[in-house]
TrEMBL record:
It comes from Clohesyomyces aquaticus. Gene3D superfamilies: 3.50.30.30, Zn peptidases. It is an enzyme of class 3 (hydrolase). The lineage of its organism: Eukaryota, Fungi, Dikarya, Ascomycota, Pezizomycotina. GO terms for molecular function: aminopeptidase activity; metal ion binding; metalloexopeptidase activity. This is Peptide hydrolase. Residues 1-21 form the signal peptide. Its cofactor is Zn(2+).
Length: 509
């Protein structure tokens, strides 16, 4: 993804009305030293004190409000949703903006609008030989088949892993390319298949499992593309290698839309603006449901911590972000960090990601961010979470820090990062049932990316615990960065590059 192109189209917008002194916290030549508000007598931020202000009651009031907002999406989607471009998402943005605006001049708020692509698959089917495929899943951001109608063709095996155009035999033209997963992104394979004249493409797994992937940034050469399980692919590969013919019918009715959407950034007017604590959650949901846990909870935890923080003074600046387009592939957070000039990047001492704070069948999960793989400081942040859960007498687990949420762009641009989560479509183990309660053998969030991710889908206890921990993380660094490593690099280690297969919730490679 190009960074220079993004920089050119960066658009920031700050209000001249509303609370006095609203200003852009970065990129503005006049904003190096925010005007200090009158020396008020607020006590210095204190972790214990701000944690005591976090209550489940207040969070649940916000959750109910968030669900009402998601219902605004019903007119277009026939069910509640806060997906980018929907009225539910616009309502969420207004709610965030208004909540911060009401806190007066404690924060400066800015809207960062950016172009985003949003894909919807309305219907799809893949028939292989004489049976309908069970595992075939249309890739995120796939185009439809021609005229949104079924297309017919022979399945044609592509050589190697389909990462070079020369891997695609001439017979691919007018037929369906059958490509092994791996080495290069799904988007590259789909593009090669399209250039070679395929009417559709299938990327089959090297493992038994299904492939839930995304093509990423649209290309005019992309063709309708499915992911297929290795299990279903095996007999087909056998036939093709025997020179037996396999015909197929592929059908995808889908649409890829380009829209403008908005990141909202709020920064304390007080505190050292050259040393910022940054944290974020994502304001959008998937199209399938209201996203109250994913990531309504992170969004609302941030709003609540931002609200309670105003009762204190801070030594270091605190910058909250509500990203848009996370579900389309981390679009908002990528846009923000890749378009930030180096001098501004270095003012961010760390970035903390808060995505899915209250899964119903939760585990207290800490991203296994280490200094060996991630920018120095990531491990110190990881240890802050460990220490806190330990002091509370709570169990925790480590989870891979592999690009599944908005921290990815920060890590790739040298900003130390980390965060906590409570689990998505992973399965709780027997051991974890003993550690956290809940039910082994089931997803941490059985409503992940579904219609039932509503108010009833949040575990209030876990939400309170994690919001207190968010408050603790903010309090600790807003008070002092003593002992926390200074910023150095502006890039990720090559190890991170190699280990990362996700970009958002979907695989891209
Ligand atoms: C920023 O975005 C919010 C939410 O969409 C909107 O309510 C507000 O008017 C916008 N402010 C400016 C200055 O554009
Ligand atoms: C700000 O207020 C605090 C607490 O009242 C006081 O100790 C401090 O001296 C004041 N600082 C300035 C610069 O007036
Ligand atoms: C923080 O606040 C708690 C009360 O909530 C108080 O007992 C404690 O002394 C405070 N700590 C500091 C360092 O001010
Ligand atoms: C955490 O990551 C490090 C590599 O940085 C690895 O050595 C360690 O095994 C990981 N721990 C867990 C529990 O995944
Ligand atoms: C932590 O996990 C252990 C089992 O490993 C369990 O016995 C204990 O009750 C758990 N603690 C809490 C607070 O759930
Ligand atoms: Zn999420």
């Amino acid at each position: 993804m190009g960074t220079t192109a993004r920089r050119v189209i960066l658009a920031l917008c700050a209000s001249s009305s509303g609370a006095a002194g609203l200003q852009i916290p970065f990129l503005s030549p006049t904003s190096q030293t925010p005007v200090q508000v009158a020396n008020d007598t607020k006590p210095l931020i204190n972790s214990t004190a701000i944690q005591e202000l976090i209550s489940g009651e207040r969070l649940m009031v916000r959750a109910k409000k968030m669900f009402e907002i998601a219902k605004l999406g019903e007119s277009e989607y026939n069910h509640p949703t806060r997906v980018i471009g929907s009225a539910g998402h616009l309502g969420t943005l207004n709610y965030i903006y208004e909540t911060i605006l009401q806190l007066g001049d404690y924060y400066t708020i800015s809207n960062q609008s950016f172009p985003a692509v949003s894909g919807n698959v309305y219907e799809s089917r893949l028939v292989l030989g004489n049976h309908v495929s069970k595992s075939a899943a249309p890739m995120g951001l796939t185009p439809p088949t021609k005229d949104k109608q079924p297309v017919h063709g022979d399945v044609v095996l592509v050589k190697n892993d389909g990462c070079a155009y020369s891997d695609y035999p001439a017979e691919v033209a007018g037929n369906i390319a059958f490509i092994l997963r791996g080495t290069c992104p799904f988007g590259t394979k789909s593009e090669h298949a399209g250039r070679a004249g395929a009417v559709a493409a299938i990327v089959y797994n090297y493992e038994k499992d299904n492939v839930q992937g995304t093509l990423g940034n649209p290309s005019p050469f992309h063709v309708a593309t499915f992911g297929l399980s290795g299990e279903e692919a095996e007999p087909i590969i056998k036939k093709l290698k025997n020179k037996d013919r396999v015909d197929a019918i592929a059908y995808i009715d889908a649409e890829v839309k380009s829209i403008l959407t908005v990141n909202i950034i709020a920064q304390t007017t007080q505190g050292d603006p050259d040393n910022c604590v940054m944290l974020g959650g994502h304001s959008d949901s998937v199209a399938e449901g209201p996203g109250i846990n994913d990531d309504g909870t992170g969004t609302m935890s941030l709003l609540e911590v931002a609200t309670q923080l105003t009762k204190f003074s801070v030594n270091n600046c605190v910058r909250f972000a509500w990203w848009a387009g996370e579900e389309e592939g981390l679009l908002g957070s990528d846009y923000y960090i890749y378009s930030l000039p180096a001098v501004e990047n270095k003012k961010i001492r760390l970035f903390m990601d808060y995505d899915m704070m209250a899964s119903p069948n939760f585990a207290y999960q800490i991203y296994n961010a280490t200094n060996a793989v991630n920018p120095t400081g990531s491990e110190e942040l990881r240890d802050l979470y460990i220490d806190w859960y330990t002091k509370q007498g709570l169990n925790y687990t480590f989870i891979p820090f592999d690009g599944r949420s908005d921290y990815d762009g920060f890590i790739r641009n040298g900003v130390p990062g980390g965060g906590i989560a409570t689990g998505a479509e992973g399965i709780k183990t027997k051991k974890e049932e003993k550690m956290f309660g809940g039910k082994a053998g089931e997803w941490y969030d059985p409503c992940y990316h579904q219609l039932c991710d509503n108010v009833g889908n949040v575990n209030e206890k876990a939400w309170v615990v994690n919001t207190k921990l968010i408050a603790h993380s903010v309090a600790t660094y807003a008070r002092s960065f003593k002992g926390f490593p200074k910023r150095s690099s502006l890039t990720a280690s090559s190890i991170y590059d190699r280990q990362t297969k996700y970009h958002g919730s979907k695989l891209f490679i």
